[in-house]
Amino acid sequence: MVASTAYTEVWQEARTLALTPAQVASPLARRPYDLRHAAVSLRLNGGVPAPEVAARAGHGVDVLLRVYAKCIDGQEDIVNQRIVDVLTA
Fold it and tell me: 74 vs 22, which has greater pLDDT?
């Protein structure tokens, strides 16, 4: 077993080696869990349907949307066009 303090030390060292100084100073990948959050947010912002994102993350759709809905950004034009497409089909 690896002590949590050792794991944290290795993670912080890896961040220092992999990221720029500005990125290290930011919250980017501050904790390993942040990578999971980033993956879920990326999928939602990429237009992957919420039920599929939830299944891959091991969440129910209700939990997924409660936690991650605030992370969805920049889709207004796409969504508006989809609505127009459906209404004019």
Answer: 22
